[in-house]
Amino acid sequence: KQPDAVHNIYRQGCKHLTQAVCTVKSTDSCLFFIKCFDDTIHGFRVPKNSLQQSREDWLEAIEDHSAYSTHYCSQDQLTDEEEEDTVSTVDLKKSLEKAQSCQQRLDREISSFLKMIKEYDMAKEMLPSFLQKVEVVSEASRETCVALSDCLNLFTKQERVKNFKLEQEQEKNKILSEALETLATEHHELEQSLVKGSPPASILSEDEFYDALSDSESERSLSRLEAVTAHSFEEEGEHLGSRRHRMSEDKDCGGRDALSNGIKKHSFNDFASICSSTRCMISKLFLETKELSKITMPVIFNEPLSFLQRLTEYMEHTYLIHKASSLSDPVERMQCVAAFAVSAVASQWERTGKPFNPLLGETYELVRLISEQVSHHPPISAFHAEGLNNDFIFHGSIYPKLKFWGKSVEAEPKGTITLELLEHNEAYTWTNPTCCVHNIIVGKLWIEQYGNVEIINHKTGDKCVLNFKPCGLFGKELHKVEGYIQDKSKKKLCALYGKWTECLYSVDPATFDAYKKNDKKNTEEKKNSKQMSTSEESDEMPMPDSESVFIIPGSVLLWRIAPRPPNSAQMYNFTSFAMVLNEVDKDMESVIPKTDCRLRPDIRAMENGEIDQASEEKKRLEEKQRAARKNRSKSEEDWKTRWFHQGPNPYNGAQDWIYSGSYWDRNYFNLPDIY
To answer: Dmax of the chain from CA atoms?
Structure first.
C-alpha cells in the first residue's frame, strides 16, 4: 500500500502462487484479481496515472510465476534413495583436494626433472623440441591446478546454499512435529475433560477462555498469520480481500451451558477457536513440505498394528472366497467376489488410528498368507495368500499414495489386487477405493471411502462396477455402495447395493432401477420442502438418514459385517479379528522369522500402553533404517527383497510384485536385522 511505501514498508506478507489464476474486469483497466490455491481471492490495483501496459506487466509476471510454481510443485520429489545417490559436495571436495594434491606432486616432479636435464651435459644432446614439450606439460599441469581450485570454490559456495536450505527444512519439520505432538496431547486432554465434565488445566483458565478471539476476530488473526492483506475498493460498493479460508470454518459456539454440577461445558468448537493459529501453521507447513511420508508423526496418532497387519485383515471374510469357489454360476461367483472386495475395507470403519509404517524388509504371516515391505520410497507392501484346500490364490501389492487437503488426508491405494479361483481357472482383478480421514487437526475424526471399484473376470469378460459414494453435503450417501454386474456386452446381469460398513445385497437390475427412480423423486420433493441454510462444504461428520440399509423386495443378502466386541472402542475400534493379529507365544516366536512385525518393539510397547517407550523405539528404528540405507548407498549396494520380485501382473499387465516362493520352507537364513 502506498502509505506503507512512504515508510519503506513494502512487503505485507507472502502467498503461494501455485495454481493461482489471474482475472481482470473489463470495466476497470487498473484492477485485477488473483485466485489462490485455497480459493481465496485477492484484489490489486495499479495507479491510475500509469500506462495500461503496467497492469499487463503485473499479470504476465504473476502468470509466469504461477506456471513455474505449479510445474515445480507437480514434479515428483526425490526419494531418500535418490537423494543419497546424488554425490554430496563434501565427497566432491575430498575428491578435488586429492586431485589437487596429485597435481601439485606432478608439478614438483616435472620441475625437478627439468632441473636435472639442464644440469647435465646430456641436455646439450637432446632436441630442443623435447625440452619444449616437457615445459608445455608442466604449464598444463599448473593450469589444471588453477582450474581445480576454481571448481572447488564453486562447489564450496553451492554447499553453503544447500546447507542453509537443509537447515530451513529441518526447522520446518521440527516445528511441525512439535506442534502436532502438542495438539494431539491437548486434543486428548480435551476429550477426557468433556467426558469428566471439567476443563483441562493445560489449555486455558476460565478467565483466559472468555478472552479468546471471536470467530470474526479469529479469522482476521488468521489472515494476518497467513500474511495476506485485504484490499478494499470503493467502486461498485465492492469489498474485496480474503475470502474465508477453508481452514476457518468453526461456528460461533454462542453461550456456554452450565452442567448440573456448575461446571461449564467446553466444546470442540471452543478448542478450535483457541488453536486456529496452530492449525493454520500446520496446514502451511504440510503444504510447503509436500511429502507426508517425510514427516515424523507422533506415535499417539498410531494404532498398535503395522500396515502389513492391516493388509491381512482382507482375509477376515475368507468364507466368501470359499463360497465363490463352490458355485457353478459365474454371476453368483462374481457376487461373492464383489462382497469380498467390499468386506475387505469394512474393518476400516471408525479405525482412525494410523498403522505403523512397515520397515523395509519387514514381514508378516498368518495361516497361509505372507506379506513383505518390498519398498520404502515409495512405500509398497506385497502379499500372497493360498487357500488351505488349494482352491484359491489371493495376491497383490499396495502403495497408499497420500494427499493432504488441509483438514483431511486422502489415501489412494495404488496397486492391483488379484484373486484366482483355481477350480474354475478364473482370475479377478480390482483396485480398492480411496480412503479419506477427516478432521485430522481438530474435531472428531471420521472416515469415508469413495470412488469406483472395477472388478474384472478375465476369463468370462464379466465386470462388476461398484460406486463407493462420497457422503455428500447432508450425509444421505454416507457409506453407501451401489453397482452392477455386467457381461462383456455391458448388459446388466445383477444389481448390488448396501453399505461398506454394514452389508451388501444383490437384486434384479430392473427392480433396482425402479427403486432408484422412485427414491430420487422422493429426495427431490424433500429438498423442495426444506429450507437449505447453507451450501458450504464441511468436514464435520454428517448424520446419515438411517444407519440401516433399506432392503428392496426380492434382494439376496451376500455379506453382513460381524459385530465388534464390547470393548472395541477402548481397543482402537479393532474387530475381533484385528485384536489377535499381534499375538505371539514362545512356540510361534521360535518359528516366525525375526523380521515379523509381531516382534517390533515400538508396536509391542504401544500395545502394552507404554507410549513414551513406543515413541522412543519408533524413533530408534527409523534412525536405524536411515543409517542402513546410507551404508548401502555408500557401498553402492541395492536392496534385495526376499520373498517377492517385480514383474507384470499376468492378467492385466500392470507392474506388480510376484511371490517368489519358499517362505513356508522355514529356511530363514541371512535375514536383515531391522529391529
So the answer is: 118
